Amino acid sequence: MDRQVYYLPQTLRNWPWGRLINPYYAQARMESVAWLESFCPFSSQAQHVFNKCDFSLVSALTFPKASHYDLRSCCDLMHTFFTLDEYTDALGPPDVKALCDATMEAIENPDKPRPEGENIIGEIARQFWRRASVDVPRPCQERFVNSWRTYLGSVVEQAERRSNSYICTMNEYLAARRNNIGSDPSFVFLEISLQLDLPHEVMEHPLIVALNRDTTDMIILANDMCSYKKEVLANDADYNAVTVVMVNEHTDIAGGIQWISDYHDEIIEHFLRVREDVIKKNGFPSWGTDIDDQVAKYIDGLGQWIRGHDEWNFGSGRYFGDRGLEIQKTRTVVIT
């Protein structure tokens, strides 16, 4: 492959939220990694590579105000997400559906033992949710179960598109990716981490839905720009926003990155405008002081999520190995 260079834009150059990290990170990471490794989900070498991604770090950066107990749950969530992702990446649609069905049944029935001989991912999901759901408000539990179901459906859809080498339009891509990036289940854990108890009518209000969508879209675009090199080298970049833009806009890598950067700027402007509307009650009702305060905390949590996710892209070894912090400064990515 010829040497290719692209430059990552400073998408968060004016973002109001700075970097925070949970003080319980080290302890929660140790506990969650030990829990996952107890299942022996990977070979020793594959487990070493998996651990270098440091999925506990993304939890510590995106849930910086969680208690020790809840941060551990957030770490377990990320380990469940990415273990399922590793398992399904190399499988065809029928096998992907079987694994997704197992995790769905486990989430719906966390007190029910998994069938003997089933893939271990079912038991991983069961144990994760059984622990995490303790003392969680009922609406929050319901939102997680529903969002998990939607997420799994999109994982199956992605497997079908991958098997057909289908490059979709940008609108199709974002519509599908919004579900399989796993943000909606993660946002439920944002509620848990902040000890919120918000009714469905609040969380289903169009302005809150819009803020969630904007946050999700920013996560998708940042993720895809950072993961593009890794996916190109693995010959798995068809399902990436950079490729989608390059194909649909008939441009090169630089043009694709610029298009995404410009679009990201538009999303930021929209997020901040909607946030202001919610805070000032412009088209957003008041549910009383307590609920209004919780809504403000939730929106602040979304803003922190964006910063934390961006920090993890460079602070973990998932996309850039040991050079992440250097690339965060230089913004230069070389594909060789």
Q: Please, what is the average pLDDT?
A: 95
**Number of H- or I-type helical stretches:** 15
Fraction in helix: 55-70%
Lateral arrangement of strands in the main beta sheet: 1-2
Give unreliable regions as ranges: none
How many angstroms does the end-to-end distance come to?
A: 6 Å
User: What percentage of the residues does DSSP assign to strands (E)?
Assistant: under 5%
The secondary-structure class comes to mainly alpha
Number of strands: 2
**Main sheet makeup:** 2 strands, antiparallel
Order of helices and strands: EHHHHHHHHHHHHHHHE
Approximate shape = globular
Give Rg in angstroms: 19 Å
Kindly report the oligomeric state of this protein. Answer: single chain
Structural notes for this entry:
- Its EC number is 4.2.3.-.
- This is Terpene synthase.
- One of its GO terms (molecular function) is metal ion binding.
- This protein has 336 residues and is mostly helical.
- It is built from 15 helices and two strands.
- Strands 1-2 form a two-stranded antiparallel ribbon.
- It is globular.
- The N and C termini lie close together (6 Å).
- The model has no long low-confidence stretch (mean pLDDT 95).
